[in-house]
Amino acid sequence: MLTWYDYYEVRGMKVGTFLKKVSRVYRGRLFSLKNGVVGKNIRVGKRVKLSLPHKQNKLVLGQGVLLYDDVKFYFDQDNANISIGKNSYINRRSEFCCKENISIGDDCAISWDVVITDSDYHEVESTYTTKPVTVGNHVWIGCKSTILKGVKIGDGAIIAAGSIVTKDVPEKALVAGNPAKVIKTDVHWK
């Protein structure tokens, strides 16, 4: 059984090839992805799943990405793209729900039970249902937080546990609450 600390040396390998290799260990519980690239030193936990009912979806995993157990990627429209920057980690049971584009920067720490979605999944008159989500570099997202469509999170920001982020977050800001508001500026974390 594959565990989170298993080590894969893959250099620019297509995601489909990588996932086929991993899915043999999972006995078919992962689905093959036709497009995408993975960096080297990717580590993948148990029951990481991709939902791919649509075509031309792309997953990019940067060098040193760590996906803990039960992370889920949902590609819910054709041409949906998710990218995770180098040395970022996604903790257990976090979900990415993508219809257009979700981008996570380098060196990010995403805690457990986080949901990131670029869509409302239901139309309300005269509104856009889908807008890209962009998370900058070195961002810390606390457990059980939700990042909603159209949000841009600046480099070095911290999202407190349980926050619902509906608006852009400035660089090096600490936000908390529902909806999330700036609590402190010029924060630094290790």
What does this structure look like?
The chain has one domain (13-184): Hexapeptide repeat proteins (UDP N-Acetylglucosamine Acyltransferase, domain 1), CATH 2.160.10. The chain is 6% helix and 33% strand. It has 190 residues and is mainly β. It is globular and about 45 Å long. The model is unreliable at 1-12 and 23-34 (pLDDT under 50).
Radius of gyration: 16 Å
Query: Biggest sheet: strands, sense, closure?
Result: 8 strands, mixed
Task: Provide the domain count.
Answer: 1
CATH superfamily membership: Hexapeptide repeat proteins
Strand adjacency order, main sheet: 3-6-9-12-15-18-20-21
> Structural class of the secondary elements?
mainly beta
Q: What is the 3D shape? A: globular
| Alpha carbon gap, first and last residue | 32 Å
The first-level CATH class is given as: Mainly Beta
Question: Strand-and-helix sequence, N→C?
Answer: EHEEEEEEEEEEEEEEEEEEEE
CATH architecture: 3 Solenoid
Strand content: 25-35%
Low-confidence stretches: 1-12, 23-34
Give the averaged pLDDT, no decimals. 82
- What is the count of β-strands? 21
